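Re-run with default settings, no changes from the original entry. Doing this only to confirm the output is reproducible before filing.
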Amino acid sequence: MTVFERPKITTNTPKNYLLPNLTDLYHQGKRKAIIYGTNQLAEITYLSLLDSSIKLYSILTDDPSKKKFLGQQVLTLSEFTQEYSENLSYKNLILLCTTDTDKEKLSKEISKYKNIKNNLKIIYIDDILKTSI
């Protein structure tokens, strides 16, 4: 090692656990992601997406007063489902849920729209982190 080289420091951060999962999803054909939540875990998920081949499609929130997060436009779940149900061209989307949202409630809301349910895979980031740590 020369004087100018920095040693590689590897740490077990949430981002390091998310990247391999995002890579696997990319290899499964997933190309665009929606982040559900505007919390610290959503920020980590966003930063992980920047280092992956999956592109951010949208950020969703339960807070209708929140309009921007990390410089990106934010939609409510109802705004998203309405927009997405009208536009059938998007396929193979993933929804990266970073909130403590009731899983059953979220699945029920998504399942109201057949074309969304068939083209959207919901991934709970907490579940990835729990099995990785």
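The mean pLDDT is 81. The longest strand covers residues 55-61.
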